[in-house]
Amino acid sequence: MQLFTCPFCGPRDETEFHFGGEAGNLRPDGADVTADRWASYLYMRDNPKGATREIWVHMNCGEFFVMERDTVNHKVETSIALDSAEHA
Amino acid sequence: MTRRYSALSLFKEGLAGQKGWEPAWRSPEPKKTYDAIVIGGGGHGLATAYYLAKNHGITNVALLEKGWIGGGNTGRNTTVVRSNYYYPESVAIYDLAHRLYEGLSADLNYNVMLSQRGMVFLAHSINEMEITARTVNAMQINGIDAEIFSVDDVRRVAPLLNFAPDARFPILGGGWQGRAGTARHDAVAWGYARGASRLGVDIIQNCEITDFIIEGGRCRGVHTTRGTIRADRIGMAVAGHSSVLAAKAGFRLPVNSYALQACVSEPVKPILDTVVLSPGTGVYVSQSDKGEIVIGGALDRVPSYGQRGNLPVLEGVIAGLLEMFPTFAQLKLMRQWAGIVDVVPDSSPIIGESPLPNLFINCGWGTGGFKAIPAGGTLLAHLLATGKHHDISRPFDLARFASGRLLDEAAGSGIAH
User: GO molecular function terms here (chain A) (predicted)?
Assistant: First the structure.
């Protein structure tokens, strides 16, 4: 059983967390967004092998945060609370 | 040298000390140029190479595999072959695969041990019975064999199931596809490899792609750990690693890579002669010819390239299995592993030309790639040979994500992810 760290609650069982998506995938702004740009936002992913930066939610407390981890060895580097500047 | 496998050749070789067999496939040094390159020595890649040679007469082909053939998801699945999907486009592609599987041993002169023992998908509530009726109706309308099973029918094919009235997931009945079954997964890889090699395809193992050669905006070949290899038609069928290769080629895919686990018990005498799937517990199970109970379940919920799998999902799968088959609590698990699967938002595959011209992709099969191997190979070979879609692959083009014309089998046939 792996422990993930919630910035609010501390280390908790991995089953309490849900993957939310890749960090930095910003919603396109404006009324004239092309279909390709929408598809890119909605569907296209970097899906990196190795170091990654992701949005996760701790389902027990509802905290959304950024987790930096490795997709091959599953080592977690950091958990960072998500402020308004990160994902505006 | 003995080339063809038959009872007679086995008998003759037995008399001759088994010394006359030729290797199942050649292992040549890579040439500098080919007419086509196929990246990925799993079932889909090997089938692509085979059908390029057999269906289209293109035999100057290199198949490049970074490890050993059949060592990825082709050797890590639970070997189930079925075609119980919902949308007509999906039925067309999975039934193409299913029908090719039915003739594959004869086509390849290699016994892939297809066993059409049937599959029952259980229903645990009145609501699930209604959904099962909808699925069975859709399958029948699309020309696929399917029938509704009463609880007595289920008891007839799988008497060890938990029919207790106080079961957590009581069994009310289910659906049945009699043509479904299992095939020997390694034999599928080896049979296609042997067939392709005999038609002239060079199968090159331990050959990892380091970069693509891009000239004039088109893909012209690959740099590999065994040198530079050029071709003007390149196909890739690398499942969970599709995003990694796409990044080298300069584009992104609508793919997330997850670990999908499976495990087997110690071998026991025959006790289960069908495939059983329970959407309620998320578990599917069959018994291998060696006697092992082969167990599969849901995806790990953590994006991953680690071919191991995590403990909570394994616990959940085993708990579901024991709810379905309480007697299996006596069994010991012998092996557990995971493969990295390429999960797409609409749970349908992606087949077509990539954003990099000359590079064609076959990916996105997610948790269901093994059953689709003959179709994936046929359709990618058609694209490589003609540059155009086969009618069956056209709906699965990457362009569907921009047009919004998705094929949502997650909703259609209730795929768990």
Answer: sarcosine oxidase activity
Report domain extents, chain A: 3-25+36-81
Q: Which of B183, B119, B176, B115 is nearest to B147 (CA)?
A: B176
ipTM exceeding the 0.90 mark: yes
CATH of region A3-25+36-81: 3.30.2270.10
Do residues B84 and B275 lie in contact, with contact meaning Cβ atoms separated by under 8 Å?
Answer: no
* 8 A C-beta contact, residue B321 and residue B328: yes
Q: Taking a C-beta distance cutoff of 8 angstroms, is the pair B196, B25 a contact?
A: yes
pTM for the predicted model, two decimal places: 0.96
Exposed/middle/buried for residue B386 (C-beta within 10 Å: 0-12, 13-18, 19+): exposed
Of B349, B347, B318, B346, whose CA–CA distance to B333 is shortest? B318
In A, what residues contact B, Cβ < 8 A?
Answer: 1-2, 13-15, 18-19, 35-36, 38-40, 42-50, 52, 54, 71-74
CA gap B270, B315 in Å, rounded: 25
Which residues in chain B are closer than 8 Å to A49, comparing Cβ atoms? 241, 243-244, 257, 305
Domains within chain B, CATH numbers bracketed: 26-109+185-253+347-412 (3.50.50.60), 119-181+256-343 (3.30.9.10)
User: Tens digits of per-residue pLDDT, A33-53?
Assistant: 999 999 999 999 999 999 999
CA pair distance B6, B323, nearest whole angstrom: 44
Please report, for residues B25, B68, B159, B252, B318, the alpha-carbon distance to residue B329 in angstroms, rounded to integers and kept in the order given: 42, 35, 16, 45, 9
> Using CA atoms, how far apart are residues B258 and B364, in angstroms rounded to an integer?
12
- Greatest C-alpha distance within chain A: 46
Alpha-carbon distance of A82 to A87, in angstroms, equals 7
